């Protein structure tokens, strides 16, 4: 079996950090013994990261996130053709040296600053867009008060609280892949927005209804107000409530799922209105009649605990969750792999590779990375 430079490099990094499993270590040793260019690369990597200036880097990379940043930087260097056929060892050394120079590892460490403070590209943040054109990165603000016209907003990095303002002033929050965020609306209703989700709502509610728009996935705890129904506008459907808790999912184009946890809601789609009871989910797809069936709360709501639970789920559906949570592009090399099924859990606190290893063991699927794109085959 041929192994890409990226795969070999990843094995070496895991071995240097003592994170390699026995099977991979055996494979790496075999490649080193049999291929001169791999042996040369291994020698140079050892010199850089065990006895050379990279030793200090190894000691500083003591969190999973920092290792991911390091690996991502190496991948970006590879895209600049530092890794080329016939120049494997030189490419690895060049990539490693580039990282070391980039973070100034050769100079004394300033203990007052966190390691790897710079990345080749700033991470995407949770964006608050106010109708007057102002855009605020909530993930970069920390614990701050924000003034937007007559509205007062408070952000603690995880929750945005709205007070004041007027009903004609709308705002939009966009949560990127790999993140989630909560919003406390003026009526004390709570929105918990999953990754790759957008919510559009007014700074305050007036009139006979409370109306918002959501595209993506969210869990809502709606404050009870018998005089003002709460209406959620989704792509192709609406949900009307008085006071309740439910999950909505409109990730898939033309498909809306509403799972009721407590209270009661009316789901409207395609000119049809269906009432839901706790423990039941309404499913509207491409103009077809709404289907109502019981749902597994542990599975549907698991994302709020940093997990995605799958039960005999097709791989082509799992791919969407991987892309949203790990911000990685995924390609299915053939249609067969997409139809295979998997039962298991994605844990947001664990590395992507941990899940992929589970996937390969139980679903008979292999994977590889090429130019920062994850391929399943």
Automatic annotation (TrEMBL):
<keyword id="KW-0472">Membrane</keyword>
<dbReference type="Pfam" id="PF04773">
    <property type="entry name" value="FecR"/>
</dbReference>
<feature type="domain" description="FecR protein">
    <location>
        <begin position="172"/>
        <end position="266"/>
    </location>
</feature>
<feature type="transmembrane region" description="Helical">
    <location>
        <begin position="82"/>
        <end position="103"/>
    </location>
</feature>
<dbReference type="InterPro" id="IPR006860">
    <property type="entry name" value="FecR"/>
</dbReference>
<dbReference type="InterPro" id="IPR012373">
    <property type="entry name" value="Ferrdict_sens_TM"/>
</dbReference>
<dbReference type="InterPro" id="IPR032508">
    <property type="entry name" value="FecR_C"/>
</dbReference>
<dbReference type="GO" id="GO:0016989">
    <property type="term" value="F:sigma factor antagonist activity"/>
</dbReference>
<feature type="domain" description="Protein FecR C-terminal">
    <location>
        <begin position="308"/>
        <end position="372"/>
    </location>
</feature>
<dbReference type="Pfam" id="PF16344">
    <property type="entry name" value="FecR_C"/>
</dbReference>
<keyword id="KW-0812">Transmembrane</keyword>
<protein>
    <submittedName>
        <fullName>DUF4974 domain-containing protein</fullName>
    </submittedName>
</protein>
<keyword id="KW-1133">Transmembrane helix</keyword>
